[in-house]
Write a structure and sequence with these properties.
The protein is built from 18 helices and 13 strands. The chain is of the alpha+beta class. The mean pLDDT is 94.
């Protein structure tokens, strides 16, 4: 359930020979679980920017193989291009997308940098969040003098790389040095304005961007910039941290835009940048008519935005993900200039396996018919998880109905929080619907393993024990999660809209059925475990949950019956 995704955007010093570029991307894609999102070669820059995503371990391995292949096919001794560069792989940032922190990416970047230096002999600098010194956070500091300065920098204690520092040699001459780091996700976004004035757009951009605008004599636009004692222009900072912005006119649309790069989405999320640009525009008699996202965004960017605007409307945030994203799209006008398809703009959606067949994607009829078929899966475990999901869904429904009812305006936030908890439990239980079937499939896969030799028999027995343990733990997780739903169900039975109290009651019945049904699977699967100590512990845990579920159901039904 907790998906961990990072993005990697290495820049390779080759933009003219497609066969070399393909050799590098083929090496990257050889790692299972990697999704190649973009390959952008530039002939003038003689540089190719590659974007790929996946689980952290897979991405780090793919980055290593890409760097290795680049060192084999690119000879920096003959490289020329318009873009600054220092090595065959010039920069290689790791970027958190989902379930991973920037600090974790920084540690992965340092480990990768050391491995590249140790195994490939390529000197590496660490920059941005992975930097070992404050000054090396800046890529320009690491790349100072570019490739041509390496003979002077290599071997130097102050200027040399973080890993692989040694006198300049033939290997370094061929590969150059690589800068590896970690940074947050960068969002490129344009704000559409109801004006054709580039001057007005620039003024708005200067109001909000972190750098701000020059301080001028007399406070006038035409005044001379004021400088400090060192001769540097004194700047008046803008209002948004971690942003760069400029105004321009777009012939294609016939409007002016504020074009912005958000380099620190933790400090300045997209929705806050939108609101601030709207405020600055309004102060200058201009209106933001829509937003254009350039490239891709992590799902959390739109989820956070949708919830932000829902809260401003005093609406519940405990609604399905697709509805939250739709609110974000409409609130920021992401579809003003053309269709905005989340399936094509959100990284997590792009890398989903579209061919994967999931039970939860079936229609209600399709799920029932699949259950009724001669196939042994889905079985009781999946049905139990689905019953639990329905129980949590009913509690969520009551919370959302209550949050939107005028009589409950003073406590809509409490109902919204309850709806969010219910949504989260429902999603976990829906995941367990397919995970329970996966547990069954793992056991079936063991039966196909060879068993001729003693070694094969031992491997088969070990695999069966592991698969059986997994098949026991999954329904136990279903029990635990369904049991959590009782808290939200009880709260809604007690405090929710009284017209929906029976919905809470049915939710309690569904949750209890989920717990009891899943416990049957825990018991029958635990019976096949060789490790009896662990088996008894799992059964004991399940029995305690089942006993408590009976109490919870009875108490909630008593509340419901008293209100009918």
């Amino acid at each position: 359930m907790n998906t961990r995704i990072i993005e990697c955007v290495p820049n390779f010093s080759e933009g003219r020979y497609r066969e070399k570029i393909k050799a590098i991307t083929d090496a990257i894609c050889s790692v299972k679980g990697i999704s190649l999102l973009d390959v952008d070669p530039g002939e003038a820059t003689n540089r190719t920017v590659v974007t790929f995503v996946g689980a952290p371990e897979a991405v780090v391995e793919a980055a290593f193989l890409g760097i290795k292949k680049a060192a084999e096919v690119i000879d920096m001794r003959g490289h020329h291009g318009a873009h600054p560069r220092m090595g065959a792989t010039d920069v290689c940032p790791l970027i958190p997308v989902a379930g991973v922190t920037l600090e974790e990416c920084a540690e992965l970047a340092r480990q990768l940098a050391k491995r590249v230096a140790d195994e490939l002999g390529i000197p590496t600098y660490c920059y941005e969040a992975a930097a070992f010194t404050p000054e090396r956070k800046n890529l320009a500091v690491c790349r100072a003098g570019e490739y041509e300065a390496l003979p002077e920098k290599m071997g130097d204690e102050q200027k040399g790389p973080d890993f692989g520092n040694r006198p300049f040699d033939e290997n370094v001459a061929r590969t150059g040095a690589t800068t590896i780091g970690a940074r947050d996700f960068l969002i490129a976004v344009n704000y559409n304005l109801n004006t054709t004035s580039t001057r007005r757009a620039n003024a708005i951009a200067f109001d909000v961007r972190e750098k701000g605008r020059p301080m001028r004599e007399g406070g006038k636009v035409t005044g001379k910039p004021i400088k400090d004692a060192d001769g540097n222009t004194i700047m008046i900072p803008g209002t948004l941290k971690g942003t760069k912005a400029i105004g321009w006119y777009i012939d294609e649309y016939g409007i002016a835009q504020v074009s912005m790069n958000i380099t620190d989405i933790a400090a300045t999320p997209l929705h806050l940048a939108f609101d601030e640009v709207c405020r600055a525009a309004d102060a200058r008699g201009v209106r933001v008519t829509g937003t254009e996202i350039v490239g891709l965004v992590p799902k959390r960017t739109l989820i956070d935005a949708g919830k932000y605007f829902l809260r401003k409307q005093q609406r519940s945030t405990g609604i399905p993900e697709r509805e939250i994203i739709r609110i974000a799209i409409k609130s920021m006008g992401l579809d003003q200039l053309g269709e905005f398809d989340p399936q094509q703009k959100v990284i997590e959606y792009l890398i989903e396996d579209k061919n994967a067949k999931r039970l939860v994607d079936l229609t209600a009829r399709g799920f029932a018919e699949e259950t009724a078929s001669e196939s042994p899966a889905p079985g009781g475990g999946s049905i139990s998880a689905y019953m639990g999901a329905l129980g949590a869904a009913l509690a969520t429904m009551v919370a959302n109905l209550s949050a939107h009812k005028a009589a409950y305006d003073d406590c809509w936030e409490e109902f919204s929080a309850a709806a969010e908890r219910g949504q989260e439990l429902m999603e976990r239980l829906l995941h367990l619907v397919d995970e329970d079937t996966e547990a069954f499939n793992r056991i079936m896969a063991v039966f196909a393993m060879p068993k001729k030799s003693e070694a094969e028999k031992a491997a088969r027995a070990q695999a069966m024990e592991e698969a059986t343990l997994y098949a026991t733990e999954v329904p136990l997780h279903t029990m635990e999660t369904a049991a959590e739903a009782f808290g939200v169900i009880r709260e809604m039975a007690e405090r929710g809209n009284p017209n929906s109290v029976t919905d809470a009651g049915v939710g309690a019945l569904a949750a209890r059925a989920a717990v009891r049904g899943a416990f049957l699977n825990v018991r029958i699967n635990a019976a096949g475990l060789k490790d009896r100590t662990r088996a008894e512990a799992l059964i004991e845990r399940g029995a305690a949950i089942e006993a408590d579920a009976a109490i919870q159901e009875g108490e909630i039904l008593a509340i419901v019956n008293a209100k009918i």
